[in-house]
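JOB MANIFEST
job_type = single_chain_structure
chain_count = 1
residues = 471
[input]
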Amino acid sequence: MAQLWGGRFTKPTDEKVYAFNASINFDKRMLRQDICGSIAHARMLGKQGIIPAEDAEKIETGLKGIYEDVLNGKIEITEKYEDIHSFNESVLTDRIGDAGKRLHTGRSRNDQVALDMRMYVRGEICVTDSLLDDLLKVILDVMKANTDTYMPGFTHLQKAQPVTLAHHMGAYFEMFRRDRLRLSDIYKRMNECPLGAGALAGTTYPLDREFTANELGFDRPTANSMDSVSDRDYLIEYLDALSIIMMHLSRSCEEIITWNSNEYRFVDIDDTYSTGSSIMPQKKNPDIAELVRGKTGRVYGSLFGLLTTMKGIPLAYNKDMQEDKEGAYDAMDTANSCIDLYTGMLKSMKFNKETMEKSASGGFTNATDAADYLVVKGIPFRDAHGIVGRMVLECIDKGITIDEMSLEDLKALSPVIEEDFYTAVSIKTCVEKRSTKGAPGPEAMKEEIALCSEFIDKTPHLTDPLDKILK
């Protein structure tokens, strides 16, 4: 068992306690971050004359060699080590001797793990941002191709007013657009370097915290050493953002599942994103959409788990905070894979335009426009509302739609109705008349699509600055 803190102890750690305390099985995914953070720390120690410059160079060369050997499978991260930090330092010391023992000068495992986790989350935010960018491009393609694909808009899961598929998908574009902006905000807020905070009260060594912050791509060092090692609000923010993203994905997947049903048939999910039944040969199940919907609760659980872990922790660091990782890693992996799979499913999905338009023609989605027609003819809106209500009742009795009523029957309800009524309540007219900003009409949608395109073109990708360290 490789431990870095054994000098104080006279007895070996119980095997069960060691296994319970160890984190190597899950924090080994922070290898890259721990290597980069240690390289930056060694550079600073050498620059400041805290350790000999030649030792700093040996440390950097040794750490880079460890990283390459792990990637190439020459060495394995095993349970022999308590965590990724002890692995790197132990292997380094084995390779370069006493110089490796100087790496931890002016550093605590508390600020080390705080740094690694912050850099890991920063990198994952960049991954999520890139996946959302890909998704927004697919949504925009669907919008551009379906500005004249008419479909019913719903409230309370009942047909309400006719819209277009472009308009409907534009709502999801806005949701995922805000998700990208939310990630950008989190990135900016969290991009402060905790290295140099020590265990909780800094250090007596003349560290240059601005140097290490700059080396690792941070905007600045953190302002308070106790806060630096004892909070994970940046991670909670990221898990919250992932939960909102999953909520948006789940809402869309719920609709896709419904639209894919035999009763709707609005969409055909591609075979590559569907599965069959082990007993019913006719089945083609929307499993990906259902799994994304189901995994939303899993991501929520990670958020609430960490909130619960953090709620009772006094300053500064406590071992409880080791529980920030497993659930968070799972949430990141889950959410990012869901975004990726949802994007592929949407990109390959076929929309049944005729079926959608036919559905929009039923359900009296043009009832509001019929009332508006009467208002234009001089009927007060409240009276017009009552007239159209009776019109709908008569249609229900006869099993027809409003635009299938005879002019004679329409005039019996209101003498102001003329032949132009049929044009006024056509689905095409109902959509095209809605030209206010943000509405589904052609001009409004043209403007919306232009704004969406501009957002994609002008919103910079978030980038992980660690690559330069390992060159």
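[summary]
The longest strand covers residues 158-164.
The longest helix spans residues 109-145.
exit_status = 0
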